[in-house]
Each structure stands twice: as C-alpha cells, then as structure tokens.
Model the fold of this input.
Amino acid sequence: MTARHEEIADELRRAIGREEYTVGSRLPSESELAAHYGVSRGTVRQAVAALTAEGLIGSRRGARRVVLASRRSQSFEELRSFAQWARAMGREATGRVVSQGYRPAAHEDSVRLQLPLGTPVLHVLRVRGLDGEPVLLERTVYADWISPAVESIEPDCPSVTQRLYDDTGLVFAHGEHLIDAVACGARDAELLGVRRTSPLLRVRRVTTTREGRPVEWSDDRYRPDAVTFSVHNSIGNNALSRKTAG
Done:
C-alpha cells in the first residue's frame, strides 16, 4: 500500500505539472496543506521533502516553499525507464517487440558493450506508446550475459527495466546520453505513424551496472510532438528531464 505522504507528493507533483502552482509561486504552508489533506504536519513535511529532493521546489527554513520547476526532475533510473516516467506523468506506458534476434557483435557493439568482436548479442526493436499512441522506437543491443533474461520477457511487457530487476536483481546504475535530431526513415515512419523525413529526437545511450559493466546500448527515437527534454540546473541538482510535449 502506498504511504500517505507519497500520495500527497504525487498530488502536488500533478498540481505543479498542471501549473496550479506556477514557477516562482509559493506553496501553501504546512499547516494549510495538512488541513487540506487531513493529515499531520509531519506527513506533509515528508511529502514536501520528496519534492525538494527532486528539484521541484526550493527549501528555506522558516519560509514557505517556492516552486522551482514545472515538471519533475527525474533520477537516471526514471529517465531510463519509460514506464516509470509515464506513470509519474499519469500516463499509461505500452510496449511491443517488433523484432528480436541474435547477431554477432559488430565493431560498435564491441566498443560500447566491451565485448570481443563476433560475440552473440541480442538486438531488439520495440515500439513504446503513451496511452496507446506510439511515441518512441527503441533499438537496443544487449550484452551476451543479460541477453537470455531479456529474451524470456514477454513481447508486450511495459517495463523491461523493472522485469530485469524483479527476475535478476539487475539495477541500471550509470549511463551516458547523447541527444540530437534525425530525419525519419520509411520504416520508422510506418511504426510511429508519422510522415517520412519528419524530425525525430534521437537519444543514444549506454547503460552499465554499479560496477561499470555495460548492460546495453540503444538508439531511441521519439516523436517530438509527444516528448521533449529539458535540463533543470541548480547547485545541488543538474537533472536531465523528459516530459510530454505541449
């Protein structure tokens, strides 16, 4: 069961996302929030602390909190997991495997995954959606040591990240992301339901374990009318965030 302070934090996130509290405005006081939600000030304090840690609101002892960002700044784990991000936005994530198979590791696979050339690696093409609408293509190459676990996951699993954690205990701990724009090819256009040569946001990423062992590398392509990326900078938090476009 979700703790009450987590429920309140989610409600406040959604309110900030809807700009009921705009950037620069002050949140109600702890006493006002406690009365509104019918909880103790300690419960409110826990909810507010979560939003402060995420960079959504500022904290100053003895003063009401100020809204710093209109969207939640996500941790790397949330940025990595499309399903977790979608849930945080109040959306339903879907996924479908279009193709999957083993190929000998080419030069790029060998460099990114730190494997010998020719090592069998699993290539997976997935279409990801928000509320049933396709918004993202994931072309992912998995290292040989994790490929069997990925191969056993059902094709419509909404969160491969969560399933790998549940099945193997694997945690995606570190990553590098390169973001640019590319023109949409014929196959991508068909899978995403957009016109050929339409611009797509491309995110190339390599993810590793806590020990630095490469798990996967991927070429992800987003419809820019559905998803945007922003960077929220502060002294204590420099987070890359993904959010719905609009």
